[in-house]
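User
New here, explain this?
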Amino acid sequence: MKQGKVYLIGAGPGDPELLTLKGKRCLEEADVIVGDYLADKRLLRYARPDAEYVYVGKKAGCHTMKQHEISLLLAEKGKEGKIVARLKGGDPFVFGRGGEEIEVLREAGVPFEEVPGVTSAIAAPAYAGIPVTHRGVAASFAVITGHEDPNKDRSSIHWDKLAGGVDTLIFLMGVGHTALIASQLMKYGKSADTPAAFVRWGTRPYQETYTTTLGKAAEDVVKMGIKPPAAFVVGNVVKLREKMRWFDNRPLFGKRIIVTRSRSQASRLVTVLDQKGAETLEIPTIAIRDPSDDFKGMDEALDRLEMYDWLIFTSQNGVDSFFRRLYQSGRDTRALGHMKIGAIGPATARQLTRHGLHADCVPAKYKAENLLSEMKPLLKGYEKVLIPRAKVARSVLPEGLRDLGCRVDVVEAYRTEADTAHKEELLDVLEHHGADIITFTSSSTVYNLMNQIDGRTDLLKGVTLACIGPITAATCRKYNLEPSIISDIYTIDGLVNAIEKGVEKK
């Protein structure tokens, strides 16, 4: 049996991009992942598909497992020869009870490593525009638990030293004890007018920041309904927030946006929306599959490539599928040297550059009609044209080329089909009014979403519909749905820019 090992990984404060490279590498190796309440589930994208996931989350009043049981679980999995990734919110050694787990692992003879993480004590204030130190304002900071061990006879917190000797105080897990914290600090000389802030769900797209003063903090917790998890920051650095805030004033901050693209296509859209501050919900309504004829049509076309004068791509998926099959056949791009290449838009053209090719024709507007118009002066009327594309697509381009005298072969490069695996999640989000915007990047995303909600347009009441172009928008109208946002530029960046303008206008 191979030797097991446990990695205690600091998962960071919430933003999955704050995971360390070492933490990512350990996740990729793991046979078992043991996750906390505050460890963002998006980190599981780095796990192997066959990795076991065990949730052991603990929050106030609700413990899936007791701490000692979690420690024994880690030891047990390690003794089975498993590589275990123990994902802990923030840093394992900053009130993460990582030391307690290590003591059990050491006693059980299980090898371990601690992988530090970005602590919310620094990251949450930073994402709120509050630096824990700043020249001329704060030269020191302290991180204090707001929830001491209830079995202790007396507090080990030196309130007198904290009140008078440290510039910035950050209390973790202290929302429920705000009154005690504030009273102790003021008792030992901290002014009631000292600026303070609560940063709830720090670094996440639904982060909330509440500013107050030390004297009013306990009252405001009740009045504003502030709940855990939140970092409580006390000090003059809080006054820097208005000058230094950057995270929660991004254009799409606070907007929950459903991305209906297939998961294989969604990454670019999700990334750009995330950068604009949105909370993205990946709920794909379509999936990209291999051709229904098992590439028969594509393979036949590849065998007679020398006959074609033009190769035209109408999507990035078409590019990906065509070149994957080309390479699998033992050929490479030299087989295309005699052909001219057309691309329906810049995104498709960019995909071609990954294979070292530049399109000869890319229209200024990204529709089949525009590509046809741009190609017309380049054709003599007898060219042989190959179009690898989706099984179901508009006939405008091939019919238009035939009208110009071309001989056109359309081969199935891929097919889209309904992805119903997320139907329950979609219905739950819409029934509980959990989305502000839904993005549609093709007509098929519209058809399949409406099928999954059984045509219930009432579920979309109050939800902004954003379409990548007029064709997709026209599909929405077939269901008597009027999109509020229609991108003039039919690309991901164009769609996001249209959403940003629409939100700003609203």
